[in-house]
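[RESIDUES AND BACKBONE]
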Amino acid sequence: MTGLAASALIAPLWAHAQTARRRPCLLIAEEDPFTGLALLKTRYAAGRRPSNDMLGWALSWRLTGQNTFADRALAEMRSKRLPAEGKASRTWLDYARWSLAFDWLFDYPAFDRALRDRIAHELVDGAAAILAAPAFADPSQLQYHNYDLRYLALAAFPLAAVEGYGDFDERCRPLRAKTEKGFANILDVTNLVTPEGSYHESLDYMRITWASLTLLSEIQRTAKGVDPAHHFPLFRSIGDTYLYKLLPDGTPSREGDNEYPILDTRDTALLGYSVNRFKDPYSAWLLRKSGFFGKEWVLPVLEFLWDDPEVTSRDPALGTESELPHQRYFPGVGHLVIRNGWKPDSTWIEFDCGPYFSKHQHLDQNQFTIYHNGYLAIDSGADYTDTESPHYLNYYRRTVAHNSILVFDPSEKFFWSENVLPASNDGGQRMDSARFWNTVRSREDWDRTHDLWNVGSMRVIDYVPGQYHYAMGDASKAYSPRKLRRFTREIVYVPGRDVLFVFDRVVSQNPAFRKAWLLHGVTQPSVDEHAGVRMFRFNEGAGELSVYSLLPHDATVTRRGGPGNEFYTPGDEHGGPWGSGQNWPLEPAQGGPLPDEKRLRHMWKSFWGDDFSEILSSNHKNVVPGAWRVEVSPSEPAEEDFFLHVFEIGKQGTTGHKRVKLLDGANFAGAVFESGPAVVFSTATSEIDTGEVSLPELGCDSLLITSLQPNSVYELNFAGLNIPPSPSAIQPGIQVSMLRVRANDKGIVRVDVQRLENLRLRIARV
């Protein structure tokens, strides 16, 4: 959807009225397929009731004609006033509430002209004040961001409410032009950033943004009959966002600045919107049956309007995989969610690689997280309520806090905002521009800064239900080009075995730059060896994660964490070597005075100003911040390194007992999991025509080969290995079998096998 088309779609919402309006028309209407008065009257007659507040009383009068309801609402309106002061990001709901009441009670005889004029003036004064704010200096650049959308809602609700009323339209015409341009731009940007759901600033900020976005959309639909949800797929994707991005315990994905991973009133309203507008049975189940969502709604009257009782809830655990896929990719932001079911003990994996759109994103491309009966591979650290803090700047938003890769160049510089404050060197993804503390403003803005922001992409995604999930992320541009040429990560998840393969190729500009592969967990991991393979294990809750570290061959495995080292960053801000850094602890959740240390006090005052003297309380008491990580680094310096790890996921005490072997060869490397899959990845720098790999004495039930040429035919030749003979051994070089297979359109071959061991596999394109 182009910006021009978006503008044409939105223009009628606040256009100058030529005739008197037919009321009510905000969220409800005389005739409407979703919230028409006849439908709502039927709901009322069946025993359901609107909320017990000003809006609920106004709606009850509309449905019953009982004047006592309207009189109660008017009494509150006479005795109270709209807030003339306060943060617009919080008072927008007051303006929405009063605007709706103004519209719903407009033609009640006791709603006299004097009271209507007073409220209309208060509404328009508030709208005019917010539209004079710097955010609206150029409304065509209004951001798809939680603050800007709340500002827009504060202005748009009053302007929609007073449309056609007296002399207000003349004053409101230029104000409506601003809201029109701003909303058109935001809707257009949704198709760039989150065309099919998820969000770039975390689910915490998503709900704040989308609560006002959906209400604005519904105003347009009911007032003008033009429905953004028919033109912008984001709206239809709200239910699926929650369905996939909620972990099996009901907490949301932790990617980005999720400082409050507890669902609240806005989440409830958004699920209600999905039920009402799209009659989504899974959203209905989440809302009513899951136990994840509270009973409070951001506007209480929405429960009556949007929780359509005719929509029957459906437990996703009852759906087949063809009906409800176990994978969902969210384009734009580049979030991939994989799960092996919908029960409380199911495995949930998120793998992220996409562009950088907003300051509330983290520098974490090609990162993954895993949940199974506990938080096993996590985003570590936690947010400070007002964001900027020493912990936030130097650890939480940085690559070092995530399950990704560090490449440490001692001379690299990182800084906060407009280079106000230098940041520690974590060896991670770049933070060398003020744009990393900003938000994409428009498509034109994206095109102009594309080279800076387009830091990651999901190059390949493949999924065969019940067999495997595959993805390749390319985060090469996320790092300074002075230190890194390439970083690709491939993942293969085999749901039947609950096994995840992670294969990384990292090419640095200088072999002396230290590389570190990171895995974060909650509790202290064990690090040992099993059947000749390095292994480490994290436990949390009732879940367990055993990780077999196969590449690099000679690696240094470091267990880091515990008191005083929970949030350690390896470098300082002065060009010091690896190890010159420090721990950046969380601020106390309850808040308190600034620290005595001069350096930390300087950071706080640089963030917030010289008059800042006390740290506010934080929501991060609800966050699982972690305290431990494992680092895997090559023992010998090299420009190119491969990292290969196999993750076995399960309940405590059930993992880490299988044998896992490295598959090493020419142009290929991979791993075989005992009695399970063998997975082979390309190590070549260009297109593969031929390659070989040895299959050890370890039986497998399937063979999967990635990174082949899409739709090309390959011969798989299996021959005996050159090993000491035994009575049953296959003679070296003797062909055992040959398969001719075609790679699918994603370049993947998968074949079921009875038993493959002590064989040499030769792969050749025909």
